[in-house]
Specification:
The complex is a heterodimer of chains A (307) and B (389). By secondary structure, chain A is mainly α. Chain A is built from ten helices and four strands. In chain A, the strands form two sheets. Chain A has a two-stranded antiparallel ribbon. Chain A has a two-stranded antiparallel sheet with strand order 2-3. In chain B, the strands form three sheets. A seven-stranded mixed β-sheet of chain B has the order 8-7-9-10-11-14-15, with helices on both faces. A six-stranded mixed β-sheet of chain B has the order 2-3-1-4-5-6, sandwiched between helices. In chain B, strand 4, helix 4 and strand 5 form a beta-alpha-beta unit. The radius of gyration of chain B is 23 Å and the shape is elongated. The chains are: A mainly alpha (307), B alpha/beta (389).
């Protein structure tokens, strides 16, 4: 019983890591632009596909470059996937969100645009690559460590570690650096900041680079852990991560991190001790209760407007 | 002058046609040659053409001392229920076929079966596993076993092969096929090994990718075998995660494993596992091997289960034709005679196993299932056949 419980804590930490990494991206963009980037889940999906092609390239499957050992491929794939996914995120910002922002339209339209962008990414993928699923190659062989009856794999530890590191890194960037200060300033007053000589557009682009880069990282880790890719893989997990971010207090890095792990814990523990059909019912009832007690989320602060 | 010539020609044709028709047996095929699953239609037609050529080259089939050649009419149902319905009607009323083979998928076979039964024409669906296709329809037959049959077969195989006393099940509760199969497996396994012998009966929901909590319970339950009747996109995730949870016991599946690109997605992790299905190409013997070799030579590919089941279904219907007595030319009478003959099928020796129909009840064949072992090259090899008892 205790063993099962500890095992499930690790399961939940792993599952929660994905929610957290995606929720962090939602949170960054929302924090700066007050824009709910509904395309974020699909950027995560694109990240997984980019990771897939990057890995296949380095493994020598396309014949352009000779194959490399798995650990080296992984080491190269992490920065490359993050960069390429960031390019996708920034492209979305430039093509879809910035023109609307320039015209000064209501934020509601930008949110709808984000939803559409997500659908476009999904279906473009479906049209380009077809509905057949991809199998992500095994980069590092899974090793199972059995510690007092609890099974932990190297992949699982890696995922949890990366999620924690990502949190500390993002928190450091936002709280301790100058560009982080600029991000917070734009979030505070988007119209006054450019008057102070801060290039608002560059800061916004940087925000998208960070958010999408970490979505790409999440996509890569997800593909390593669950090596079957399909074009709709990002939709549901993206929405759930968004809810996690809201429960944590959207706009707060700590909130997104905590919210992601909270949702992961609730989901895994419900499945472990109740029939799985009750999972979403119980999980979202708990989240709803948290929101009704504290509408700004666990770590959120009250704002004037929200969508 | 011209008119009378045409009239004479028409007269000749009219008198010639029935004479010609009397010497041939006309069967209709209601198959998806376009639409979502054109491969299924192609496999069906390939099998049919191969069989037709084989029989006609040998001079046709012998009915009551008279030789009849085969005449096949192919009708495309576009893999749609409504088209399957109109195709069935057209074959029966316009083309005046003696019997129909197809449709293949349950989606089309259920409505087409209703039409065939109403118009009193024998129909056999080679591939449809949904019980409703034949339920309460004396004119409708099928060439494969039902979904419900696989659960008991898997339970029996798991008990005998692995000496399993305790079993675990993991399935998608939001999907009909795995849910039904899992419940059948549980009932059958507990019948053999006593109540409570299914120690973990875990569920998930469609589109889930993380099964760690369920597999934790399964690994801790002490089960000797895991039964998971899931599809090719979920099986790799389940198998890989089971291993990372320290579950190193055999995993057993159902015919849904055989569809799609299971090995492409699963790789080495699925090697050495078993699943229950209709037929296995690799490692086949005797008649089955002859069929596979001939088919491969003719079409340059290994026949899939649709091709094999279609081959058996046509033969099953022809077996009925041979036993139905002399052809009278009265469609209604002949069709009913064929139905009676097919119903009486006993120990028909097909390439997918022996088949018999129960004289009472629905026309679902009593036949053996094949257990496939995924070998070290990732091929689905014949392992053994398991029969109901």
């Amino acid at each position: 019983m205790l063993q099962s419980f500890i095992q499930n804590i690790f399961n939940a930490l792993q599952w929660g890591s994905f929610y957290s990494l995606i929720a962090l991206g939602y949170c960054l963009v929302y924090g700066v632009l007050l824009l709910i980037n509904f395309a974020h889940g699909d950027i995560f999906m694109v990240g997984a596909y980019i990771a897939f092609y990057v890995c296949m390239l380095f493994l020598g499957k396309f014949g352009i470059i000779p194959g490399m050992p798995g650990w080296l491929v992984l080491a190269l794939a992490v920065p490359l996937t993050m960069m390429l996914t960031a390019v996708v995120g920034v492209t979305l910002e430039r093509v879809a969100y910035r023109p609307l922002r320039r015209k000064g339209v209501n934020r509601l339209y930008v949110v709808i645009t984000a939803l559409m962008c997500g659908l476009i990414l999904e279906h473009a993928n479906l049209a380009l690559l077809g509905a057949s699923r991809r199998s992500f190659p095994t980069l590092i062989p899974t090793t199972v460590y059995n510690i007092a009856g609890v099974n932990i794999t190297n992949v699982k530890m890696g995922v949890i570690l990366v999620a924690i590191l990502a949190f500390f890194f993002l928190r450091f960037v936002v709280v301790k650096t100058k560009i982080g200060m600029a991000m917070r300033a734009i979030s505070y007053d988007r119209f006054a900041v450019p008057l102070m000589g801060i290039p608002a557009d560059s800061v916004i682009v940087f925000t998208f680079v960070l958010g999408s880069g970490f979505a790409g990282l999440a996509g890569l880790l997800f593909a390593v852990t669950y090596p079957v890719l399909d074009p709709y893989m990002g939709a549901l997990i993206g929405w759930k991560a968004f809810i996690a971010a809201v429960v944590g207090g959207i706009g707060s890095i700590r909130g997104a991190f905590a919210g992601g792990f909270l949702l992961g814990f609730v989901e895994i523990m419900v499945v472990a001790f109740f029939p799985s059909t009750l999972r979403d019912l119980i999980a979202f009832t708990i989240l709803l209760l948290i929101l009704s007690v504290k509408p700004t989320g666990l770590f959120g602060v009250a704002r004037r407007t929200k969508i | 002058m011209k008119k009378s010539l045409l009239g004479a020609l028409a007269l000749v044709l009219l008198t010639a046609l029935p004479a010609f028709a009397a010497d041939s047996i006309k069967l209709g095929f209601n198959i998806p040659m376009t639409g979502d699953i054109p491969d299924v239609g192609e496999s069906s037609k390939n099998s049919a053409e191969m069989l037709k050529k084989k029989i006609n080259d040998a001079g046709g089939i012998d009915i009551g001392g008279k030789k009849y050649t085969l005449d096949f009419v192919y009708e495309d149902n576009e893999s749609k229920a409504e088209s399957a319905l109109s195709a069935a009607r057209k074959l029966i009323t316009q083309d005046k076929v003696l019997g129909i083979i197809g449709p293949q998928s349950s989606k089309q076979a259920v409505p087409a079966g209703e039409a065939a039964n109403e118009l009193k024409a024998p129909m056999i669906s080679p591939w449809s596993t949904n019980p409703n296709t034949t339920k309460g329809r004396p004119f409708v037959f099928r060439g494969c076993f039902l979904d419900t049959f696989q659960g008991p077969v898997a339970a029996k195989f798991g008990t005998e092969e692995f000496g399993a006393k305790k079993a675990a099940v993991l399935y998608d509760i939001a999907s009909d096929y795995p849910k039904g199969l899992s419940e059948d497996f549980k009932a059958a396994f507990e019948k053999i090994n006593g109540p409570g012998s299914v120690v973990a009966f875990e569920t998930f929901t469609t589109k889930d990718v993380d099964f760690s909590a369920q597999l934790t319970n399964i690994a801790k339950s002490g089960a000797d075998v895991l039964f998971t009747p899931q599809y090719y996109n979920e099986v790799p995730l389940i198998v890989k995660q089971a291993k990372s949870m320290g579950f190193n016991k055999p995993v057993l599946g159902s015919d849904s494993w055989g569809s799609g690109d299971l090995m492409g997605l699963c790789g080495d992790d699925c090697k050495g596992l078993f699943f229950v299905t209709h037929y296995a190409a690799a490692g086949a013997k005797g008649k089955t091997k002859e069929f596979i070799d001939e088919y491969t030579k003719l079409y340059n590919k290994t026949p899939d289960d649709v091709a094999a089941l279609t081959w058996d279904s046509i033969n099953l219907m022809l077996d009925g034709v041979k036993r139905m007595g002399p052809i009278t030319g009265d469609m209604e009478k002949d069709r009913d005679a064929l139905r009676a003959a097919m119903t009486a099928t006993k120990d028909f020796d097909g390439i997918t196993g022996q088949m018999s129909f129960n004289p009472e009840g629905d026309h679902d064949p009593v036949k053996c299932a094949v257990v496939v072992k995924i070998d070290d090259e990732g091929k689905f090899g014949f392992y053994k056949s398991v029969c109901p008892n």
